[in-house]
């Protein structure tokens, strides 16, 4: 049973307040709050492009253009998800482990019973412990964030030890054998930190065992591959830092990308011949290589192992048709609510979002083949050939 947690203690429910707080604070309302808060807490990828334009090229988009561009890119994603919801959301096999812990927490906070009471007590104990502990490694004693006994014993005498075992600060090393006493660092490393090319899979608390094993195998391969390629002087990268995402020139200094870009943001091929091609560090080049290979592997795996599902979904454009029989208890319960939009409307919104994105994109003066805003407008495949 839903215990109907009340909210008048936080927000009044009398007078005009009743329009904001018309009744008890229940599980459904709490879920909506979590969805909105979690959505707002993540930065849209389109915002990274706009920030990179300002940071690296001193290009500040008009506020309206930037807003419409971010809105359009977000709607493209939501549009695709809506169009494909008949086999990405509704069926039982559409299982997303990262949300199981959130659902379990919300149910424990609202449902009665002895087991849920124990879960709530455990949650508040852990919450309080983490809240008070995280102040210690984050501010007065940052040394506790990551401890490497081997680095302490070496005391900075050997670069190899720092590169392999260091991880206390950004791009210090790949952190083999380091002990982290801050959950912030643990989560960052596993989500998108030191070995971001291999472990960007989300919180480790809810991973299935198979995913954890695959991730840890990838981490160990990362230790071996990154160290071996760097000290084997792959891409002639020994004169560059061990870890960095910056661009470097032939002499190892920071690459002067303004020298090879014209005032209208086109590539100056004559200047490029003089300045030379930009260079990645070996570890960053390998991580980008593995990242791109993983995308191809994901698509290949999808066709090899899930061809029947793809054929059933896309054959005859079934994913646009409603009224399909889906054997899922949650889907049957949700059928009592009207659908937000049908397939045709989703397609129309997708096309409109794409059109808005294309129109707002004209405000950016870069040529249409331009790629990553964090890097110079040069073919990325050539960036490591020097």
TrEMBL record:
Where in or outside the cell it occurs: the entry states: Membrane
Identify its membrane topology class: Multi-pass membrane protein
**Principal place where this protein is found?**
membrane
N-terminal signal peptide: none
Alphabetical keyword list: Membrane, Peptide transport, Protein transport, Transmembrane, Transmembrane helix, Transport
InterPro entries, per the entry: Oligpept_transpt, OPT
- Would you say which domain of life the source belongs to? Eukaryota
| Segments crossing the lipid bilayer | 32-57, 64-88, 94-115, 122-139, 213-233, 339-360
The answer to keyword Membrane applying to this record is yes
As for family, the record states: Belongs to the oligopeptide OPT transporter family.
> Which protein are we looking at?
OPT oligopeptide transporter
């Amino acid at each position: 049973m839903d215990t109907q947690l009340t909210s008048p203690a936080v927000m009044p429910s009398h007078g005009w307040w009743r329009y904001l707080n018309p009744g008890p604070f229940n599980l459904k309302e709490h879920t909506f709050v979590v969805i909105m808060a979690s959505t707002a807490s993540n930065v849209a990828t389109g915002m990274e492009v706009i920030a990179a334009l300002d940071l690296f090229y001193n290009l500040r988009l008009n506020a309206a253009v930037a807003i419409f561009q971010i809105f359009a890119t977000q709607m493209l994603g939501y549009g695709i998800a809506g169009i494909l919801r008949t086999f990405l959301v509704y069926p039982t096999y559409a299982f997303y482990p990262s949300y199981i812990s959130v659902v379990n927490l919300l149910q424990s906070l609202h449902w009665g019973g002895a087991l849920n009471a124990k879960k709530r007590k455990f949650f508040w104990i852990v919450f309080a412990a983490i809240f008070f502990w995280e102040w210690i490694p984050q501010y007065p004693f940052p040394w506790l964030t990551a401890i490497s006994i081997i680095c302490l014993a070496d005391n900075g005498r050997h670069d190899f030890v720092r590169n392999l075992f260091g991880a206390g600060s950004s791009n210090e090393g790949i952190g083999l054998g380091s002990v982290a006493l801050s959950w912030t660092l643990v989560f960052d490393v596993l989500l998108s930190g030191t070995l971001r090319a291999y472990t960007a899979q989300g919180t480790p608390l809810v991973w299935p065992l198979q995913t954890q094993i695959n991730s840890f195998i990838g981490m160990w391969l990362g230790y071996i591959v990154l160290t071996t390629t760097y000290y084997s002087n792959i891409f002639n990268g020994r004169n560059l830092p061990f870890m960095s995402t910056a661009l470097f020139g032939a002499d190892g200094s920071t690459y002067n990308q303004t020298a090879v870009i014209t005032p209208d943001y086109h590539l100056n091929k004559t200047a490029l011949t003089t300045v030379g091609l930009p260079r990645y560090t070996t570890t960053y080049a390998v991580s980008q290589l593995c990242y791109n290979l993983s995308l191809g592997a994901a698509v290949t795996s999808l066709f090899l192992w899930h061809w029947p599902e793809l054929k059933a979904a896309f054959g005859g454009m079934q994913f646009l048709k409603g009224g399909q029989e889906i054997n899922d208890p949650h889907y049957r319960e949700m059928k009592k609510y009207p659908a937000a939009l049908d397939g045709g409307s989703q397609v129309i919104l997708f096309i409109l979002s794409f059109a808005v994105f294309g129109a707002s994109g004209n405000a950016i003066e870069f040529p249409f083949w331009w790629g990553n805003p964090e890097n110079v407008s040069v073919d990325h495949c050539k960036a490591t050939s020097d």
